[in-house]
Amino acid sequence: MKFRVNGKKYSPEGVLLLLPALLLYGAVIVFPVCSTFYTSFFEWNGIKQQAYRFVGLENYRTFFHDYQTATAFKNVFMLAGTGVFLTIPIAFFLATVINQKFRGLRLFKTFYFMPVVINRIAISLMFTFILYPKMGPVTVLLREFGIRGINILGNYTTAMPAVCLIYMWCDAGFQMIVFSSGLAAIPDEIYEAAQIDGVSSFQKLRYITVPMMKSTFKIVLVFVFTGAFKMFDLVMGLTSGGPGGATEVPNTLLYNNAFTYSRLGYADSIAVVVVLICLAFSFIVNLIFRQRD
């Protein structure tokens, strides 16, 4: 007896071999997602003995009418904008550099990839010290230029731009490796033929490199946007959403409502909205690039 799925036949032995992985995936991914979606329609404080109170779409309505939500989405788009207009160009440039052969290449790769492997809480603690308003290195440097009394992470105006720049530093190394893989996949014969035809370096970049890396750019764009919406640890370690909610993102709102205010149903509705937005953006990006292809 064989099982048929989408017109293909599978033996019982193959299905049994997949069963442990499917059960694990269901327990770790599918069940929590379904449970989160279910709980988002209820008011619940997280205590098992307390009854769920059905509120329908009230949690979603509250989220979209909360004044902090506007700030959180503005900050997410600031992070995404930093990724698109700063991190991607820098990472692409670094990828073109590491695709060349020169002395110290391995050290160069390690130096720029190191922020990716360091825990982001450790990074946030490091930058909290660097930007410390009394004796941090940046504060001392600014003092030399006559700028005194500035608290970068404690100022409503400068806190979020500082978080964006730190996020760029953390993410550039990962994107560099992704772009480097895309560059390595382009056949050398194309560049050699272009060189014979007298094509300039800029023309190679515009007419060969960028068009042949469209799929890589698509992947990086999805990573940038979903990474901005998943941002939590860096913001929590640097500012905890402050000062005055200036650096709030959806995940800090989720955390505070779940573990500070014991509003688990409302927190789950925030999680559902974030997941749906990320899925929608991934679908739109894939659709746009498919149409261009």
TrEMBL record:
Domain spans labelled ABC transmembrane type-1: 73-285
Subcellular location: Cell membrane
Keyword Magnesium: no
Transmembrane domains' residue ranges: 15-38, 76-98, 110-132, 152-170, 215-232, 269-289
Superkingdom as given in the UniProt entry: Bacteria
Bilayer disposition of the protein: Multi-pass membrane protein
Family the entry assigns: Belongs to the binding-protein-dependent transport system permease family.
Protein name: Sugar ABC transporter permease
The organism's taxonomic lineage, starting at the top: Bacteria, Bacillati, Bacillota, Clostridia, Lachnospirales
